[in-house]
## 1
Amino acid sequence: QVQLQQWGAGLLKPSETLSLTCAVYGGSFSGYYWSWIRQPPGKGLEWIGEINHSGSTNYNPSLKSRVTISVDTSKNQFSLKLSSVTAADTAVYYCARGSSAVAAGGSYYYYYMDVWGKGTTVTVSS
Amino acid sequence: SSELTQDPAVSVALGQTVRITCQGDSLRSYYASWYQQKPGQAPVLVIYGKNNRPSGIPDRFSGSSSGNTASLTITGAQAEDEADYYCNSRDSSGNHAVFGGGTQLTVL
């Protein structure tokens, strides 16, 4: 059974860089999109970005200028860096495995995130 | 702003049926996936694809889609179903994932 274990610094000062890593255990690393999602206190989920095993990335346009997602296939790990953090970046950060394919019949696609990390609380405060 | 729109809150009497909806242009091309999130926990996938349930998800959860609207139906809601529910898909370009704003479900 695939499990995601994530870690990183939980307390940052404004202008610092957030850095989190997610390790994939018990399954294949290739063939999936590996995503980061965040959830500010009391708010909904926000997709940050994703990477596949070959290093191809997609980022949320609203965060793109500050986000870098990288992959280390030798360790089955992927990482998130978010620069110049402010209090607005305070959130629980999750890593997740995403799958996408064409549905039977060819007229629809599907996409879902079926495995999630437990989340890391990141607080930005001076 | 989210490209997927959900009602902020819905309530259902214990044992009754409730439908949670999600609207967005990308849902004309993508099936929505649905996640249940309880306080202090990570989201859990409950429906994906046309109407697929991951292992361990009760069969009272089902999904459907019509036009630009996806629906999650809970038939015979239980107290343990009280949670926040989020829909998820790709955007119209297909290059980004998006979430709905979430629906808080209360079981009365």
## 2
Amino acid sequence: SAVISQKPSRDICQRGTSLTIQCQVDSQVTMMFWYRQQPGQSLTLIATANQGSEATYESGFVIDKFPISRPNLTFSTLTVSNMSPEDSSIYLCSVEWGDYRSGANVLTFGAGSRLTVL
Amino acid sequence: AQKITQTQPGMFVQEKEAVTLDCTYDTSDQSYGLFWYKQSSSGEMIFLIYQGSYDEQNATEGRYSLNFQKARKSANLVISASQLGDSAMYFCAMREGFGDMRFGAGTRLTVKP
């Protein structure tokens, strides 16, 4: 499976600032996915990032708040802009890969970036 | 509308016993996939097991098996011979066709020694 390096692993941020999360994959992938996991909650898809085109955002997420870059097939960034305490979450990068056991396309995830906004 | 429902916020199981984590789903698609993921306390998400809508046999992967009841739209995860390391959050997820992966609310499993 693909190996994903995500950083920072955690950060404490001040209200009103912005933070960029980086996601590096050890192989070329078409799509990269960004998820948010609020405290004690499930995963919610923020956007899908394709190389060479604008990211596709899910309902409730906008580019001004969560700008995404996808400069090549192995790298993406997610910026959380003008942060407020409500943005305190784990942000996860993921890619799709073929599971040889089941034959299905499954998601593999980075270790996550745990953001706390004060 | 919620597509994936996990009704058990928390479950406890004695070490070495089996446990079933419930998952029901809602879809009108004929082609879909059901997945289970495990999230450790560190936040790491790991894929466990997959069941396709057209698969007639229940999926199994080591100590994990998926009890797939298509008419009831349920895809329960069964963990046999629980180990202390199984303590984690477990998420059921579904993908309809080539759509995005959607996750349930999760179940926190605690294995007691």
